[in-house]
Amino acid sequence: MATSAGKNNLLPASLVSNLQDVLLRRKSDAGEKGNEEAQQSKSNDDTTELSSSNATGEPDNTKPIVLVTNADGIDSPGLTCLVDALVRHGLYNVYICAPQSDKSLSGHSITQRETVGVSSVEVQGATGYEVSGTPADCISLVVSGALYSWSKPSIVISGINRGSSRGNHMYSSGVVAGAREALLSGIPSISISLNWKNDESQENDFKDAASVSLPLIAAAIRDIEKGVFLKCCLLNVEVPTSPLTNKGFKLTKPSIWRSTPSWKAIPANRNPADGRFPANQQSLGIQLAQLGRDASAAGAARRLATQKKDIEEVESVGVARKSDPNRAVKYFRLELLDNELEDSGDDLDFRAVQNGLVAVTPLSLSQHVAQEIETAASDWISNALQAED
């Protein structure tokens, strides 16, 4: 019976053959599908890896690296318009490292005894960092290799600054200091400012100033790649108040023009949100300042290389100083008043901007080669602008 049952359970040979063919086809299809899924998975992995690589800001080796900084702060319209113009140009790897807040009059100060915070940002499609320090700190950090996989850009563009950096303002100007710090590191640089007038200027003027400056920047980068750009100086560019009605570029010399400083006394009961503590909170303000100094002093001089939430920190030793809670504190605010420069020649930066020209002033690290710089800069600007035409 068992044998009979076994015989009854036997399938016809033709049916067995058909089933075997079906199973073989299914196995083959499954194998092909598995291969397709594996290839798709590999493709997705490659795409993810590429996206990850792009997210790290790796530069395109076929394009020059342009580093943008400024003094007005990372959110300023001048920097935004300049970065937008450079990115739209499509010929450069554009990166940013700029102060977190307004450092327009910080000069060439560098942070040594305080902690500097660095956070990643993106502006108009360009990756970068905002720094709680000065423009000079920003360039110094990049050149140190602490932030990017590269440490030396093709050029540093500092700007566009809101207000004048011509004349004696170049000594207190943070935007000029950013370019000067680059020059100290052997990197070609240009600083750009817009002659802002409170009763005339509008934020859209920064876009026009960027458009006016772009041909000069393009000419500089082109000649940097050829090895014929100026090596001994930076170019301090000042765009007139109405950028699109400018009368052309003019090579100029630094004038002795300077705004008149006017210090205004501020009542002690002003809003502490403005950075001033009322009289009844002076001791609290001093205590908070002391806590900050103590916290800085507690750190050993070291760089914290670890990143947490896209933030890096550079920490250095500070010297704590005990404060006197009974010490009286007064508050003042600086205002810069415009004035005229008498008997200024047409070849000076002040007069050129007043006449509606874009002033291009070469600034050297040494005053002993001023004449050689002026001649070299004059030749370069003439050739560069003719080539752009």
UniProtKB/TrEMBL annotation:
GO terms for molecular function: metal ion binding; nucleotidase activity. Residues 66-257 form the Survival protein SurE-like phosphatase/nucleotidase domain. Gene3D superfamilies: Survival protein SurE-like phosphatase/nucleotidase. Keywords: Hydrolase, Metal-binding. Residues 26-64 are annotated as: Disordered. Residues 26-36 have a biased composition (Basic and acidic residues). InterPro entries: SurE, SurE-like_Pase/nucleotidase, SurE-like_sf. The keyword Ubl conjugation does not apply. It comes from the Eukaryota. SUPFAM superfamilies: SurE-like. It holds the Pfam family SurE. Belongs to the SurE nucleotidase family. This is Survival protein SurE-like phosphatase/nucleotidase domain-containing protein.
